[in-house]
Amino acid sequence: MIAEIGHFALILAFLLALIQGTVPMIGAARDDPAMMAVAKPAALLQLGLTAAAFLALVHAFTVSDFSVALVASHSHTLKPLIYKITGVWANHEGSMVLWVLILALFGAMIAAFGANLPAALRARVLAVHGLVAAGFFAFILFTSNPFLRLFPAPVEGEGLNPLLQDPGLAFHPPFLYLGYVGFSISFSFAVAALIEGRVDPAWARWVRPWTLLAWCALTIGIALGSWWAYYELGWGGWWFWDPVENASFMPWLAGTALLHSAIVVEKRDALKGWTVLLAILTFGLSLLGTFLVRSGVLTSVHAFATDPDRGVFILGLLILVTGGALVLYAIRAPGLKGGGLFAPVSREGALVLNNLLLTTAASVVLLGTLYPLILDALGGGKVSVGPPFFEATFVPIVVPLLIACVIGSTLAWKRGDLSGVFGRLGIAVFAAAAVTAAAAWRAGIEDFLAAFGLGLAAWLFFGALAEFAAKIGVGRVPPGSVLRRAGNLPRSAWGMTVAHAGLGIVVAGVTASSAWQTERIQSMNPGDAVDVAGYTVTFRGVSETRGPNYRAVTGRFDLERGGRLLAVLRPEKRDYPAERSQTTEAAIHTTWLADIYAVLGERAANGAWAARLYHNPLVPWIWLGAVVMAAGGAVSLTDRRLRVGAPRRARRGRAVEAGAPP
Amino acid sequence: MILFAALAGMALIVVLCLLIPLLRPSAPPRPRAEHDVEIYRDQLAEIERDRARGLVTEGQLEASRTEIGRRLLAADAARRETTESREAPHARAFLAAVLAALLPLAAGGLYVWQGAPSGPEPEAAGARPAEQDADVTTLVERLAERMKERPDDARGWRLLGRSLASLERFSEAARAYGRAAELLPADADLKSLQGEALAAANRGTVTPEAERLFAAALRIDPKEPRSHFYLGLAALQNGDRDGALARWRVLEAASPEDADWLPMLRRRIAGLAPGSESGPTREDVAAAEEMLPEERARMIRGMVEGLAARLKDDPDDAEGWARLARSWRVLGEAEKEREALAALARLLPEGSPERSAVEQRIETLRGKK
Q: Which residue of chain A comes nearest to B57, CA vs CA?
């Protein structure tokens, strides 16, 4: 009965999304406040109903109700409870329900907290949002219904892909979807603005926090996915330029560009058309990502939840949503009034450069991802575009972006002054040069590119700090007032410093782990020892163990340095009988400066075991840096500027007081 | 019925919430330009704050002030030409009526098309009329239903477990045996049956839980053969070939010469014995596990024949006859099933639903012949 209630709730939510997509839109056109007001209860109810449907599905999974076909094909009574719950979204249908749940959550948040938005804009934003949601509800109900029943119910379920029975992956989709779906808000705002024919600073103030929120979630989501790939797939790598990884990376690049261009719209009333276009493209790329993952056009490690028949529906939705918005853009964009002017060397100019480079990077990734698919579709045969392509094209675009990032953030609005900039950033230039020289001296001159990469990381990190120090007047004013000034600084300034410093940490991790990874693959008998980057790894043999729903062969490796035992590494090869599949569990010992990573391979005919051992320098910094970047975004989200905008007399009075000089 | 009421309630709440804004007189929204004025004022205030923090120079300050001031004036002018919002109560009432009528209709239509409102719910599964075909599944379902009323009947739980196992519904069988074992904690046989069902549910893997059950059974009855066999299998699955061999050798020695598991056990021991090869590889273990269903069938047949022999001496055991009939059915022996059912029908009270179900099954079997 609970499953049936969930099903009905989903149907009601679909109909509500249709109403939300039409009635307020007509109301905004007719200037009818009552019709516009329908949007609010519709959005809130839609959240409640979608949540009810989602909980009904969670219930079916936790009690193992195999009369629900989805549960029967993806769960098992012996599965630990946490993976029963995460199993809800580890399959196609369930993940789409999570998708619309997050979509409904964002819609309800606009409805609930949007009181300070102009009424017509709010109605139109919610209407566009409702139409997007209706498309996805229809997709679920008509092609991927999670509530289809199975009578008679089977006694036991078919289990869940053991690769997905993992904490890293359990929480990867929710964050990724928060990111993807969060960009739907920016999209709804962009389309609403095009319908209204005006983009003003109020619009930018509203778009920016939503974009920031989505961006933070996507950053965490991508980091979690990459972390999972690192320790679960057992190849010692953390990024494979796999089409599905690219699918999440493209909206991230475009979203990062959007984040920066929205600042220009708000502060300077410029770049309006471009920002609207970016908002549309960012969500378009999110939808493209969904299409690539969910349609089954790809064959990759992510090929678990695919169904070719559904691809047509998602592709149609993608074309309708993105194409429709772009047509609207073509009609309306020429009418958008341009705002403030600026010199090429200025904060705006730097942000334009940032946007150009980020969108170029996104297009390169898009090309590398889609080219094999298009070639294959046209009968050109199968080709694979791998890391060499992306390293040759992506890196040259990103290097100038990273160099300019620090300089741009120190430039003044409207008209900047480059010579003053170098005065402020002298310490960062020195740090970058010193790190490059030290790295080149240690690793040898033939590794100069890697040394340069580390120098770039230092430039970003110390550049961000130097810029912040200059802002709060370190060295110019007494220490007491430095602290006061730091406290007074807008949160968005704090956020920028933290995020840019986090980017520096990521760059350091990426560079060092790519350039200086040590790999040892060899067959070992118990007692054999191998030297890996100064550590001694001794194989002590294997034992068989059992978990709740698998059998495993566990290897034992002693990790020593200078004769001292640092850790015992226990990589596993797991065999899941119910799912009839095997997984590899890498054993990782981290010092935060490097990871020692051990994988147990196959047993050879002579009884020796194949072992893969890696030394990955600075690799934890990649995820650490990503978390720092997301934290920077979160700090920026708390900026008071993003909360203002309602015509309320009391607040106006306070604002003037606060503005008066002390 | 409850389902229908719940769905109707949901639809009603949704419609009511949507109608409230349409039917309630609403205040006209604030003019757009008022919002703009607010934002520009805030921007001016922020520039002042930036100046107080020393982030902008006087020149920049003046330039920004002029720019924002210009926009502020424009917005303020726009505020004065406010437009009247259109009030159209009739159109709203019409829209409200359309929504109130169409939404439940559309929701109901979609649900009838896609949902399964009349699907048998788990709690209703046992409530089917007795006139329907009385196959083993139905008998088992009915027994399961009866156990809800008599949860303290250990014999009933054991019977249910055995029936479910014969239908290869091993997880449920393990649960039923578990209930019986709770009621008869000193019964070694129940514990080892539960362990066997658990292992069978895992396609032959002796899980740690099953292993605990076998160990518990042996603490009660150190000779219990099934537990010895499966603990040996667990040792083998853990890579302990010698342990498995030792346990099975002990079992072989302790088994009576006519025990029906002996041929299977001896084959297993022969497969492991030293000298036959250098040692079991993972492939060997996997192959041995694949052999298991066939061997299990042979084991079941031996057990069933033993049961038939025992019932000849004790013909008043209704539970035994029911079990025998089900076992023959699983093994596809219609004639022997009919004989067992006939013996069972004799023992059931005249006119009871159980008896009519059994008789109907006998008729069905006759018809097939």
A: A412
Regarding whether A606 and A478 lie in a shared domain, the answer is no
Residues A211-235 pLDDT 10s: 899 999 999 999 988 888 888 777 7
Residues 6+ apart with CB under 8 A from A226: A238, A239, A245, A622, A623
At residue A298, the 3 state secondary structure works out as coil
Per-residue model confidence as pLDDT tens digits over A337-384: 766 678 788 888 889 999 999 999 999 999 998 888 777 777 666 777
Longest dimension (CA), chain A: 84
Q: Where are the beta strands (DSSP E) in A278-340?
A: none
Instruction: Mark which of A516, A531, A561 sits at the end of a domain.
Output: A516
Long-range contact set of residues B24-29: C-beta below 8 Å, sequence gap at least 24: B24/A34, B26/A33, B26/A34, B26/A37, B27/A33, B28/A33, B28/B85, B29/A33, B29/A36, B29/A118, B29/A119, B29/A120, B29/B85
pLDDT digits (tens, 9 = 90+) for B30-45: 777 777 787 788 888 8
A525 and A601 within one domain: yes
Residue A266 identity: E
Number of domains, chain A? 4
- ipTM of this model? 0.76
Structure tokens belonging to residue A142:
């008509």
Classify residue A377: in a domain, yes or no: no
A448: contact with B, CB 8 A cutoff: no
| Interface touch A658/B208, C-beta < 8 Å | no
Task: Report which of B168, B201, B164, B200 is spatially closest to residue B180, judged by C-alpha positions.
Answer: B164
Q: What is the largest distance, in Å, between two alpha-carbon atoms of chain B?
A: 113
Radius of gyration of chain A (CA): 27
Q: How many helices (H) and strands (E) does chain B have?
A: 16, 0
Residue A8, chain B, CB below 8 Å: the answer is yes
